[in-house]
Amino acid sequence: MSSSAQQAADGDSGPDMSGLMAPVFGYAFFQIAHTAASVGVPEAIGESPATVEEIAAATRTDPAHLSRLLRSAAAAGLLTLREGGRYEVTALGRLLREDSPSQVKHMMALHAAPAVWQAWARLEESVRTGRPAFELAHGADLFDHLETDPELAQTFHRAMAASTSTQIPALVAHYDFGDFTEVVDLAGGNGTHLAAILAADDRISGTLADTAQGLSEASSVLGEAGVADRCTTAVSDVFESVPAGRDLYLLKNVLPDWDDESCTRILRNCREAMAPGGAVKIIASLVPEDPRTIDGGQMTALSFFDISLMTLTSGRERTLGEYEELLAKAGLRLREAAPIPDTAMYHEVTALAA
To answer: What residue stretches are annotated with the O-methyltransferase C-terminal domain (predicted)?
Structure first.
């Protein structure tokens, strides 16, 4: 008798493999969720359960293939199958809607982009060689590639703005700018972050600095927020120079994208540009010195962000001690590091001239 037959005869079906579904086949669940969101399944269903035929008509998809997608989406917890073959969107599935405050649909679109998907396929080679997977896949780093791929660049900047929009309430509620009145948001993209800061404090004027591509939608964002009269834009390469003479320089989610040498160059440019008494604020997740000290869910999210950085860039998530080393190399010193509540391990790290 074979071992499997013997197990069946003994009532032992072998090890439970269900726990391997997420780590082994997570790529498939991601594509199921992304495809459902991309074709508009949550919007097509709306607030009332709908049949496959109704959803197919609304999404202009093939009913037979859609039926299989919906069944898989239900197995993943995004939908619920009701009586009469009608599907209903779950609370988890509602996060995939275009109007969801989570804005997760835009981040999924970035990671589902072919160029990014191809980079993830080179993760093993990245681990073996120490080179970014994106560079291995495309022969250029992510940011150089964005200059030649307008479609991916648009997807990238929308994902970054969407991510920022979900964090803004916690960030703005936490900020205390004290006597600082001239704020530069470096690599600030379309201005979502800076616009919220200016709208919350009319004492502050701002400068939004980024590449021409990054600033392409800034005028409309600043205008709609009603802060365009207190904000200028500056085409800037943070590795070469930053707008001079301001008293506060913000680096939100910038340094994690780069290696230590690049980070030091950015920070040194800030040190040389800032007015006397000025400061630099780094807004980023901090890796705890002992990972056992934080919640498992938070560590899972932080670990994913870190591996994403390893896949797409030369950067990484860092500990506070590692940031202090970067500051020292750039002629800066740590003043304080404060956690920002209701964010993914975000901290506000403030530095002054050494």
So the answer is: 120-332
Q: Which of 333, 334, 347 is nearest to 287 (CA)?
A: 347
pLDDT recorded at residue 1:
46
Closest CA to 37 of 70, 2, 82: 70
pLDDT recorded at residue 291: 78
Cβ of 198: how many Cβ atoms within 10 Å? 25
pLDDT at 137 over 50: yes
Per the CB < 8 A criterion, the answer to whether 195 and 230 are in contact is no
With b for 16 or more beta-carbon neighbours within 10 A and e for fewer, the 91-117 pattern comes to eebebbbeebeebbbbbbbbbbbebbe
Residue type, 16: D
What's the pLDDT at 39? 96
The tens digit of pLDDT for each residue in 316-349 reads 999 999 999 999 999 999 999 999 887 768 899 9
Let me know: does 197 contact 172? Beta carbons within 8 Å: yes
pLDDT of residue 8: 46
pLDDT band at 176 (very low <50, low <70, confident <90, very high): confident
Query: What count of other Cβ atoms lies within 10 Å of the Cβ of residue 255?
Result: 25
Please report which residue ranges of the chain form alpha helices under DSSP H: 3-9, 21-39, 41-45, 52-59, 63-75, 91-94, 104-112, 114-120, 123-129, 133-138, 142-146, 150-174, 192-200, 218-224, 260-273, 296-312, 320-329
CA distance 85 to 87: 7
